[in-house]
Amino acid sequence: MRSIVAWKFTYRAVVAVQLLLGGFVLLIGVALAVQRSAWWTQQFTGIAGPLGWLQDAAPIATAPLTAAVGVAALLRRMIGPPWVWRAMKKLLDRWQESTMEGRDGEPHFHRATLFRATRLWFRFRKSWFPIQLWPWSRVLVPVLRSGHLTQKCKSWFRIPDDGNCEGIAGLAYSQGQVWASNLPDVSGAAVSEEDLKRYAQETAVSLDRLRESKPRARSFFGIRIEANDEKWGVVVLDSRSTKPIAERADRETRGYALGLTVLIERKP
Q: How is the chain split among helix, strand and coil, in percent rounded to 5?
Protein backbone atom coordinates (compact mmCIF):
# COMPACT_ATOMS: atom_id res chain seq x y z
CA MET A 1 0.00 0.00 0.00
CA ARG A 2 1.30 3.43 -0.93
CA SER A 3 2.22 5.71 1.98
CA ILE A 4 1.63 9.31 0.92
CA VAL A 5 4.27 10.67 3.31
CA ALA A 6 6.91 8.09 2.40
CA TRP A 7 6.41 8.47 -1.34
CA LYS A 8 6.39 12.25 -1.03
CA PHE A 9 9.83 12.08 0.60
CA THR A 10 11.01 9.57 -2.02
CA TYR A 11 9.76 11.75 -4.87
CA ARG A 12 11.55 14.83 -3.51
CA ALA A 13 14.74 12.83 -2.96
CA VAL A 14 14.65 11.57 -6.55
CA VAL A 15 14.09 15.10 -7.82
CA ALA A 16 17.06 16.36 -5.76
CA VAL A 17 19.31 13.57 -7.08
CA GLN A 18 18.21 14.25 -10.65
CA LEU A 19 18.96 17.97 -10.33
CA LEU A 20 22.31 17.32 -8.64
CA LEU A 21 23.49 14.83 -11.24
CA GLY A 22 22.11 16.94 -14.08
CA GLY A 23 24.01 19.94 -12.75
CA PHE A 24 27.20 17.90 -12.60
CA VAL A 25 26.75 16.79 -16.22
CA LEU A 26 26.21 20.42 -17.16
CA LEU A 27 29.44 21.43 -15.41
CA ILE A 28 31.35 18.77 -17.33
CA GLY A 29 29.89 20.11 -20.56
CA VAL A 30 30.96 23.65 -19.64
CA ALA A 31 34.46 22.46 -18.74
CA LEU A 32 34.82 20.73 -22.10
CA ALA A 33 33.47 23.81 -23.88
CA VAL A 34 36.06 26.16 -22.36
CA GLN A 35 38.88 23.68 -22.83
CA ARG A 36 39.69 25.16 -26.21
CA SER A 37 40.08 28.70 -24.84
CA ALA A 38 42.81 29.84 -22.48
CA TRP A 39 40.94 33.07 -21.77
CA TRP A 40 38.95 31.52 -18.94
CA THR A 41 41.96 30.26 -17.05
CA GLN A 42 43.81 33.50 -17.62
CA GLN A 43 40.96 35.63 -16.31
CA PHE A 44 39.91 33.27 -13.51
CA THR A 45 43.05 31.61 -12.25
CA GLY A 46 41.21 29.90 -9.39
CA ILE A 47 39.15 27.69 -11.67
CA ALA A 48 42.05 26.09 -13.51
CA GLY A 49 42.23 23.19 -11.06
CA PRO A 50 38.47 22.36 -11.00
CA LEU A 51 38.26 22.74 -14.76
CA GLY A 52 41.14 20.35 -15.25
CA TRP A 53 39.57 17.83 -12.91
CA LEU A 54 36.23 17.99 -14.71
CA GLN A 55 37.93 17.65 -18.09
CA ASP A 56 39.86 14.59 -16.91
CA ALA A 57 36.72 13.02 -15.45
CA ALA A 58 34.58 13.65 -18.53
CA PRO A 59 35.44 10.48 -20.52
CA ILE A 60 34.63 8.23 -17.55
CA ALA A 61 31.83 10.09 -15.76
CA THR A 62 29.67 11.55 -18.53
CA ALA A 63 27.95 8.34 -19.68
CA PRO A 64 27.16 6.93 -16.18
CA LEU A 65 25.93 10.30 -14.92
CA THR A 66 23.71 10.81 -17.96
CA ALA A 67 22.27 7.31 -17.48
CA ALA A 68 21.66 8.03 -13.81
CA VAL A 69 19.76 11.22 -14.71
CA GLY A 70 17.60 9.16 -17.05
CA VAL A 71 16.92 6.56 -14.35
CA ALA A 72 15.95 9.31 -11.90
CA ALA A 73 13.54 10.76 -14.47
CA LEU A 74 12.02 7.31 -14.95
CA LEU A 75 11.59 6.88 -11.18
CA ARG A 76 9.87 10.27 -10.98
CA ARG A 77 7.45 9.17 -13.64
CA MET A 78 6.75 5.86 -11.91
CA ILE A 79 6.18 7.47 -8.49
CA GLY A 80 4.10 10.37 -9.74
CA PRO A 81 3.71 13.87 -8.26
CA PRO A 82 2.69 13.83 -4.58
CA TRP A 83 -0.17 16.27 -5.17
CA VAL A 84 -1.84 13.78 -7.52
CA TRP A 85 -1.75 11.00 -4.92
CA ARG A 86 -3.03 13.35 -2.21
CA ALA A 87 -5.94 14.33 -4.44
CA MET A 88 -6.70 10.68 -5.21
CA LYS A 89 -6.66 9.86 -1.50
CA LYS A 90 -9.13 12.67 -0.75
CA LEU A 91 -11.37 11.45 -3.55
CA LEU A 92 -11.35 7.90 -2.14
CA ASP A 93 -12.18 9.27 1.31
CA ARG A 94 -15.11 11.24 -0.10
CA TRP A 95 -16.28 8.22 -2.11
CA GLN A 96 -16.24 6.03 1.00
CA GLU A 97 -18.05 8.62 3.13
CA SER A 98 -20.75 9.21 0.54
CA THR A 99 -21.36 5.56 -0.28
CA MET A 100 -21.18 4.11 3.23
CA GLU A 101 -23.15 6.85 4.97
CA GLY A 102 -25.57 5.52 7.58
CA ARG A 103 -23.94 2.11 8.02
CA ASP A 104 -23.29 0.80 11.51
CA GLY A 105 -19.78 0.42 12.90
CA GLU A 106 -16.54 2.33 12.72
CA PRO A 107 -15.53 4.10 9.47
CA HIS A 108 -12.77 1.55 8.80
CA PHE A 109 -15.41 -1.19 8.72
CA HIS A 110 -16.41 0.25 5.33
CA ARG A 111 -13.56 1.01 2.92
CA ALA A 112 -12.65 2.06 -0.60
CA THR A 113 -9.42 0.63 -2.03
CA LEU A 114 -7.70 1.52 -5.27
CA PHE A 115 -5.89 -1.33 -7.05
CA ARG A 116 -3.53 -0.90 -9.96
CA ALA A 117 -2.88 -3.44 -12.71
CA THR A 118 0.82 -4.10 -13.23
CA ARG A 119 3.34 -6.67 -14.39
CA LEU A 120 6.41 -5.23 -12.66
CA TRP A 121 5.68 -6.21 -9.08
CA PHE A 122 7.07 -8.47 -6.42
CA ARG A 123 5.93 -9.57 -3.01
CA PHE A 124 7.60 -11.04 0.03
CA ARG A 125 6.35 -14.37 1.29
CA LYS A 126 7.16 -16.84 4.04
CA SER A 127 9.15 -19.53 2.27
CA TRP A 128 12.70 -20.48 1.41
CA PHE A 129 12.60 -18.00 -1.49
CA PRO A 130 10.93 -14.81 -0.26
CA ILE A 131 10.29 -13.00 -3.56
CA GLN A 132 7.78 -13.78 -6.30
CA LEU A 133 7.77 -12.02 -9.64
CA TRP A 134 5.04 -11.81 -12.28
CA PRO A 135 6.74 -10.32 -15.36
CA TRP A 136 4.56 -12.30 -17.81
CA SER A 137 1.18 -12.07 -16.05
CA ARG A 138 -0.69 -9.05 -14.75
CA VAL A 139 -1.79 -8.64 -11.14
CA LEU A 140 -3.88 -6.10 -9.25
CA VAL A 141 -2.02 -4.60 -6.30
CA PRO A 142 -3.35 -2.09 -3.73
CA VAL A 143 -1.99 1.44 -3.94
CA LEU A 144 -4.41 3.60 -1.92
CA ARG A 145 -7.15 3.10 0.66
CA SER A 146 -9.62 5.46 2.27
CA GLY A 147 -9.29 6.47 5.90
CA HIS A 148 -6.31 6.12 8.22
CA LEU A 149 -6.71 2.60 9.65
CA THR A 150 -6.32 -0.85 8.00
CA GLN A 151 -3.74 0.64 5.64
CA LYS A 152 -1.50 -2.44 5.58
CA CYS A 153 -3.36 -4.15 2.78
CA LYS A 154 -1.61 -7.25 1.42
CA SER A 155 -4.34 -8.43 -0.92
CA TRP A 156 -3.39 -8.97 -4.56
CA PHE A 157 -5.26 -10.65 -7.36
CA ARG A 158 -4.15 -12.28 -10.59
CA ILE A 159 -5.72 -11.04 -13.82
CA PRO A 160 -4.31 -13.41 -16.45
CA ASP A 161 -5.00 -12.98 -20.15
CA ASP A 162 -7.26 -16.06 -20.18
CA GLY A 163 -9.87 -14.11 -18.17
CA ASN A 164 -9.74 -16.37 -15.10
CA CYS A 165 -9.43 -13.40 -12.76
CA GLU A 166 -9.30 -13.59 -8.96
CA GLY A 167 -11.39 -11.79 -6.38
CA ILE A 168 -13.95 -9.02 -6.64
CA ALA A 169 -11.13 -6.81 -7.92
CA GLY A 170 -10.30 -9.23 -10.71
CA LEU A 171 -13.96 -9.66 -11.67
CA ALA A 172 -14.41 -5.87 -11.78
CA TYR A 173 -11.31 -5.53 -13.95
CA SER A 174 -12.67 -8.13 -16.36
CA GLN A 175 -16.38 -7.23 -16.37
CA GLY A 176 -16.37 -3.49 -15.64
CA GLN A 177 -18.63 -3.60 -12.58
CA VAL A 178 -19.44 -6.35 -10.09
CA TRP A 179 -21.01 -6.60 -6.65
CA ALA A 180 -21.79 -9.13 -3.93
CA SER A 181 -23.84 -8.75 -0.75
CA ASN A 182 -25.35 -10.65 2.17
CA LEU A 183 -22.25 -12.84 2.34
CA PRO A 184 -21.78 -15.20 5.30
CA ASP A 185 -19.42 -14.37 8.15
CA VAL A 186 -16.20 -16.34 7.55
CA SER A 187 -13.94 -14.41 9.92
CA GLY A 188 -14.49 -16.64 12.95
CA ALA A 189 -12.89 -19.91 13.97
CA ALA A 190 -15.97 -22.07 13.53
CA VAL A 191 -17.14 -21.57 9.96
CA SER A 192 -19.12 -24.17 8.09
CA GLU A 193 -17.78 -25.58 4.84
CA GLU A 194 -20.97 -24.53 3.11
CA ASP A 195 -20.45 -20.87 4.07
CA LEU A 196 -16.84 -21.00 2.94
CA LYS A 197 -17.80 -22.43 -0.43
CA ARG A 198 -20.52 -19.84 -0.95
CA TYR A 199 -18.20 -16.96 -0.03
CA ALA A 200 -15.45 -18.32 -2.25
CA GLN A 201 -17.80 -18.77 -5.19
CA GLU A 202 -19.35 -15.28 -4.98
CA THR A 203 -16.00 -13.51 -4.51
CA ALA A 204 -13.92 -15.65 -6.91
CA VAL A 205 -11.24 -16.66 -4.41
CA SER A 206 -9.93 -20.10 -3.54
CA LEU A 207 -10.93 -21.93 -0.37
CA ASP A 208 -7.30 -22.12 0.76
CA ARG A 209 -6.87 -18.38 0.42
CA LEU A 210 -10.16 -17.79 2.18
CA ARG A 211 -9.19 -19.97 5.13
CA GLU A 212 -5.88 -18.14 5.44
CA SER A 213 -7.11 -14.54 5.14
CA LYS A 214 -10.48 -14.85 6.95
CA PRO A 215 -11.96 -11.64 5.45
CA ARG A 216 -14.49 -9.69 7.48
CA ALA A 217 -16.19 -7.90 4.58
CA ARG A 218 -19.70 -9.16 3.81
CA SER A 219 -20.58 -6.95 0.85
CA PHE A 220 -18.55 -5.64 -2.08
CA PHE A 221 -18.78 -3.38 -5.07
CA GLY A 222 -16.03 -3.12 -7.67
CA ILE A 223 -15.61 -0.94 -10.72
CA ARG A 224 -12.89 -0.77 -13.34
CA ILE A 225 -10.85 2.43 -13.68
CA GLU A 226 -9.61 3.38 -17.13
CA ALA A 227 -7.02 5.97 -18.11
CA ASN A 228 -5.62 6.97 -21.49
CA ASP A 229 -8.11 4.58 -23.14
CA GLU A 230 -6.64 1.59 -21.28
CA LYS A 231 -7.61 -0.51 -18.29
CA TRP A 232 -5.64 1.02 -15.40
CA GLY A 233 -7.03 -0.74 -12.33
CA VAL A 234 -10.13 -0.99 -10.13
CA VAL A 235 -11.73 0.48 -7.04
CA VAL A 236 -13.25 -2.00 -4.58
CA LEU A 237 -15.70 -0.86 -1.92
CA ASP A 238 -16.11 -3.37 0.89
CA SER A 239 -18.21 -3.33 4.04
CA ARG A 240 -18.74 -5.52 7.09
CA SER A 241 -22.44 -4.85 6.68
CA THR A 242 -24.52 -7.27 4.63
CA LYS A 243 -26.43 -4.39 2.97
CA PRO A 244 -25.76 -4.13 -0.79
CA ILE A 245 -23.30 -1.40 -1.68
CA ALA A 246 -24.37 -1.22 -5.32
CA GLU A 247 -27.65 0.51 -4.45
CA ARG A 248 -25.76 3.70 -3.59
CA ALA A 249 -22.44 3.21 -5.32
CA ASP A 250 -23.87 2.51 -8.77
CA ARG A 251 -25.53 5.93 -8.94
CA GLU A 252 -22.50 7.90 -7.82
CA THR A 253 -19.66 5.79 -9.04
CA ARG A 254 -19.27 7.25 -12.53
CA GLY A 255 -18.46 10.69 -11.18
CA TYR A 256 -15.87 9.37 -8.72
CA ALA A 257 -14.39 7.00 -11.31
CA LEU A 258 -14.11 9.86 -13.79
CA GLY A 259 -12.37 11.98 -11.15
CA LEU A 260 -9.80 9.23 -10.61
CA THR A 261 -9.31 8.90 -14.37
CA VAL A 262 -8.61 12.63 -14.71
CA LEU A 263 -6.08 12.56 -11.86
CA ILE A 264 -4.32 9.44 -13.17
CA GLU A 265 -4.01 11.00 -16.62
CA ARG A 266 -2.45 14.11 -15.05
CA LYS A 267 0.52 12.04 -13.94
CA PRO A 268 3.49 12.62 -16.29
A: 55, 20, 30
CA distance linking residue 195 with residue 136, whole number of Å: 34
Neighbours of 222 (CB within 10 A): 29
pLDDT single digits (tens) 53-87: 666 677 777 778 888 888 888 888 877 788 888 89
- What H or E segment, with its residue span, contains residue 118? strand 110-118
Q: For residue range 138-147, what is the model confidence (pLDDT) as tens digits?
A: 889 888 888 8
Local structure of 102: helix, strand or coil: coil
Task: Write the CA distances from 102 to 107, 110, 112, integer angstroms.
Answer: 10, 11, 16
Alpha-helical runs (H) found in 80-166: 82-99
* Distant-in-sequence, close-in-space partners of 68: CB < 8 Å, separation ≥ 6: 17, 21
